[in-house]
Task: structure prediction
Amino acid sequence: MRQRRLLPSLIAVAGLAACQSAGGGSSPVRVASVNAPASCAEWVRRAKSKPELDVERVPEPVAYDPPPIPRRLPPGVIGKDGRAEVRIKVLVDTLGHADMKTFRVVRSTHPVLTSNVRSAVAQWRFRPAEIEGCKVPRVFNWAATAGPPRRS
Result:
């Protein structure tokens, strides 16, 4: 089994050595890893097929402007237990825009919270996710809670 994994690496090293000795040039030759994508286009393709791909930097808002939750909530938004919560997921593209067609509410304790967050996120600009220096689309997970902590 170990020999099968080493074979592609050995072939790449042998090929590199042959090219350098045949050409005699001193220009560096970059050998791509067998498992890593060779280009940003490949990273973007992988991210599109797996929107929660592990990345080096997840998307993050440049500023929470407009604010997602108003300072004063209308009556009834805070539950009888004194809590309010909203959790969302949305895909952020490589330009830093939220794709609102993918906006999903994971949990919300009141429709007013959902509406406010939806309209704010649509206006936010993000730093896109990155992997190996490439900007990739990635799901942005966000949550806000108010009130006393939940008891388990």
About this structure: The chain has a mean pLDDT of 78. Strands lie at 60-61, 84-92, 98-108, 126-127, 129-131, 134-136, 138-146. The longest helix spans residues 2-23. The helical segments are 2-23, 40-49, 111-123.
